């Protein structure tokens, strides 16, 4: 039996092509609809300005008004009258002090210039002539420094007494004593650094018992000599 339809009239033959064309047309219409923009006629020219008109605008020149009158001219200087001095001034004549070749110059005796000496303290370590502790007078000058220190240590051992209250409390330590041997050989300006007031009191008592000495000398003059020594308090 022969088919009733014409094979050329089959609509399903190109259905895929027609679908693709329709899809492209639809996507193109959607894209144009999204990208298309509309503008308000009243807002289309906002922000524009005519530059030529602004450049051609003429700025009027203003004149500065003078609110205050000009200052008056300065007054003419006073005429100074010169008056001649009628009083005669006696001229002072200075004699010539230059000597002639024939003039004999007498010898002038040498003038002794007293050297200025500053009254300063000279440390025991650098003084020229150290203070002399009683008993060191017959020692050579080069040995007097060692003799002085030996006598000081002997004096401390001889007069040393441990404070009873410090012993009971178990206090011990080292007291650093500083004093000055004055120009007359006496002891003064005693200062100390102590861990306990009782130990410091005993150290001061020992230093107060130091005898008067022969003062130290610098350039032949008596000077004050600072000296420092530690005193150790240690329980047995």
From TrEMBL:
NCBIfam families: tonB_Cterm (TIGR01352). Keywords: Cell inner membrane, Cell membrane, Membrane, Protein transport, Transmembrane, Transmembrane helix, Transport. GO terms for biological process: protein transport; siderophore transport; transmembrane transport. This is TonB family protein. Coiled coil: none annotated. Residues 147-236 form the TonB C-terminal domain. It is a single-pass membrane protein. It is found in: Cell inner membrane. The chain crosses the membrane at residues 15-34. It comes from the Bacteria. Belongs to the TonB family. Its main location: membrane. GO terms for cellular component: outer membrane-bounded periplasmic space; plasma membrane protein complex. The lineage of its organism: Bacteria, Pseudomonadati, Bacteroidota, Flavobacteriia, Flavobacteriales. GO terms for molecular function: energy transducer activity. PANTHER family: PROTEIN TONB, PROTEIN TONB-RELATED. Pfam families: TonB_C (PF03544). InterPro entries: TonB, TonB-dependent_transducer, TonB/TolA_C, TonB_C.
């Amino acid at each position: 039996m022969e088919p009733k339809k014409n094979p050329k009239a089959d609509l399903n033959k190109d259905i895929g092509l027609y679908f693709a064309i329709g899809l492209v047309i639809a996507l193109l219409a959607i894209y144009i609809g999204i990208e298309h923009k509309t503008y308000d006629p009243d807002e289309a020219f906002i922000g524009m300005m005519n530059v030529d008109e602004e450049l051609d605008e003429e700025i009027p020149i203003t004149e500065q008004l003078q609110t205050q009158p000009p200052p008056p001219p300065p007054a003419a200087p006073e005429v100074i009258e010169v008056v001649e001095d009628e009083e005669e001034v006696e001229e002072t004549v200075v004699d010539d002090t230059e000597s002639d070749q024939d003039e004999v110059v007498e010898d002038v005796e040498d003038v002794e210039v007293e050297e200025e000496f500053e009254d300063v303290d000279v440390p025991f370590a650098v003084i020229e002539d150290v203070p002399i502790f009683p008993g060191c007078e017959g020692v050579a000058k080069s040995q007097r420094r060692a003799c002085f220190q030996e006598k000081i240590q002997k004096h401390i051992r001889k007069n040393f007494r441990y404070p009873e209250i410090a012993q009971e409390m178990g206090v011990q330590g080292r007291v650093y004593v500083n004093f000055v041997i004055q120009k007359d050989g006496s002891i003064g300006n005693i200062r100390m650094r102590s861990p306990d007031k009782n130990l410091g009191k005993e150290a001061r008592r020992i230093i107060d018992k130091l005898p008067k000495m022969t003062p130290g000398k610098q350039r032949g003059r008596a000077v004050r000599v600072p000296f420092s020594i530690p005193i150790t308090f240690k329980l047995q």
